[in-house]
Amino acid sequence: MSTPGWPAPAKLNLFLHITARRADGMHALQTLFQFLDVGDTLYFEPREDGRLSLQGRVAGVAEEENLVMRAARCLQAETGTRLGANIRLEKRLPAGGGLGGGSSDAATTLVALNRLWRTSLSVDELARLGLTLGADVPVFVQGKAAWAEGVGEKFTAASPPEPWYLLVVPDCEVSTAAVFSAPELTRDCQPITIRDFLSGQTTNVCEAVVRKHYPAVDKALKWLGQFAPARMTGTGSCVFAAFENKAQAAEILRKIPAEWQGFVAKGCNRSPLLERLAAES
User: 181: which residues sit within 8 A by CB, 6+ positions away?
Assistant: First the structure.
């Protein structure tokens, strides 16, 4: 029997600035991560023979490339454990949506198996391991809203407002690599502070590129922008707007065009993953 499910929550980039392009080709950025109370769910059944199996794979992603399997193998290699696991992934977050689904799945795998295998790595050690899997993985491991800099791995704890969000999911998948390689992408934003963010001096520099190449995202931003200031998360494709309460967000959701999906979620400065981890103690 597997243990109860472990949440792999979605995230929002409340803004995204690129301040430079580094010599190694990576981008130096500033962003503010906040979690949502919705996401994927993973189930883990430890096994004694060291083998790993995965049910619920992501379409078009080979098992050896799946971030869940890669995370489990990384933890095995790092700790030398002889344990394995049967893993089941219930996927809800859209691929290419800018909600961090794959990174969150990887982080939840690291955190959950570290507890279930009793491998006893610290949060910082898990975060460093997660960074080898993707720049967003450490913030999911840490589980707290954070102001991020560098390539997204340098964190400062943050406590932005926790509104209700309406998210619109256009019918397209955006390539992060294509956005970051676009010649027209703004890469020279002046660094800002959290106070600047709170006063509204922010944007998502990827929006202009994505709106140009993905008309569905442009259309979704225009539609949602009728009701509240709308913004894209990460490199898209999902767009979001904040509301004071759940009822307001739900009322707008009822008006969403049939061509899109959408959902209402609560902003969380403490990840649901941390709550699940506490329940395991």
Answer: none
Q: Indicate whether 140 and 225 sit together in one domain.
A: no
Annotated active-site residue in 37, 40, 105, 136: 136
| pLDDT-above-90 percentage for the chain | 83
Specify which residues 88 forms β-bridges with. 43, 55
67, containing H or E segment: helix 67-79
Same domain, 12 and 151: yes
CATH number of domain containing 211 = 3.30.70.890
| Confidence (pLDDT) at 64 | 73
CA 276/CA 279 separation, integer angstroms: 5
The verdict on 172 and 127 lying in the same domain is no
pLDDT in tens, 185-222: 999 999 999 889 988 888 999 999 999 999 999 999 99
DSSP one-letter code for 94? P
- Confirm whether 11 is a catalytic residue: yes
In the chain, the number of structural domains is 2
Residue 255 a catalytic site member: no
Does the global pTM surpass 0.70?
yes
SS3 208: helix
Q: What is the pLDDT of residue 1?
A: 41
Whether residues 122 and 207 share a domain: the answer is: no
Q: Tokens representing 19?
A: 């301040």
Please give the torsion angle defined by the CA atoms of residues 156, 66, 172 and 273, in that order, rounded to the nearest 10 degrees.
-40
Q: Which of 11, 40, 91, 105 is catalytic?
A: 11
Q: Residue 60 pLDDT > 50, yes or no?
A: yes
Q: Tell me 238's DSSP state.
A: -
